[in-house]
């Protein structure tokens, strides 16, 4: 069992790719017992990646609440409520993914989402300035989750 850090998003849709940017930054400092996965927009295809995860940290763009660039860490029962504010199709996939893992009896013990509220999800490579400026804070919040989990 290990911690899986799953970055999801689409890098050609501007801020929708921020989860992958956070993942890339965190993966620069590998940790024992942590698996970094580039999930893209695969949705249910990411199920095998989390089946053996003791804990799951998801990195993604968010539709809200708050202003573009705001960073959130969501855990436990807050996750479905927040992700009902759909930003893109892969967020629905995340809820489906967690439900499928639960049905298979392979739900991670702990799940957290660290995300940044998107400014733009238009077809464009690169993050908006306000989202890019929040990458450091998102990385710090993700690191804090990993520390709480003992890695």
Automatic annotation (TrEMBL):
Transmembrane segments: none
EC number: 3.4.23.-
Record keywords, A-Z: Aspartyl protease, Hydrolase, Protease
Gene Ontology biological-process entries: protein processing
GO MF, any single term: aspartic-type endopeptidase activity
Pfam family, one: HycI
InterPro entries, A to Z: Pept_HybD-like_dom_sf, Peptidase_A31
Top EC class, one word: hydrolase
UniProt cross-references to PANTHER family, sorted A to Z: HYDROGENASE 1 MATURATION PROTEASE, HYDROGENASE 2 MATURATION PROTEASE
Family listed: Belongs to the peptidase A31 family.
Protein's recorded name: Hydrogenase 2 maturation protease
Species the sequence originates in: Corynebacterium pelargi
């Amino acid at each position: 069992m290990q911690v899986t850090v799953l970055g999801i998003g689409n890098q050609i849709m501007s801020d929708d790719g921020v989860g992958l940017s956070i993942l890339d930054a965190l993966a620069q400092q590998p940790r024992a017992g942590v698996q970094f996965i580039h999930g893209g927009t695969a949705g249910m295809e990411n199920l095998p990646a989390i089946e053996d995860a003791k804990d799951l940290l998801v990195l993604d763009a968010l539709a809200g609440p708050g202003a573009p660039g705001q960073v959130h860490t969501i855990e436990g029962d807050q996750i479905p409520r927040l992700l009902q504010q759909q930003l893109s199709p892969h967020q629905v996939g995340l809820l489906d993914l967690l439900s499928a893992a639960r049905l298979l009896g392979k739900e991670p013990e702990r799940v957290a989402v660290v995300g940044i509220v998107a400014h733009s999800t238009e077809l464009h490579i690169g993050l908006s300035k306000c989202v890019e400026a929040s990458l450091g804070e998102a990385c710090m919040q993700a690191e804090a989750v990993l520390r709480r989990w003992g890695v």
